[in-house]
Amino acid sequence: MQKQPEVNFSVEGHTDSNGDDALNRILSETSAKAVMTRLIRMGISANRLKSADWGESKPIGENSTAEEKQIIVV
Hints:
By secondary structure, the chain is of the alpha+beta class. Helix content is 28%, strand content 18%. It is built from 1 helix and 2 strands, in the order βαβ. A two-stranded parallel sheet has the order 1-2. The two termini are 14 Å apart. The relative contact order is 0.26.
């Protein structure tokens, strides 16, 4: 990211389908903003970053078993 300062990034938070949808949105927002904060502390300009919180509405993988719900994508 530091070697390509012209590139912008979207940090997107997702959750599995367990729990309340509203709480999952808050969790995904909190997670995405935490990643953005860390990137800024590492020297990435805030104007290169945006965030989105998807909660359980946009799964990034299968979401039917406990194993599938543990997938972490970075």
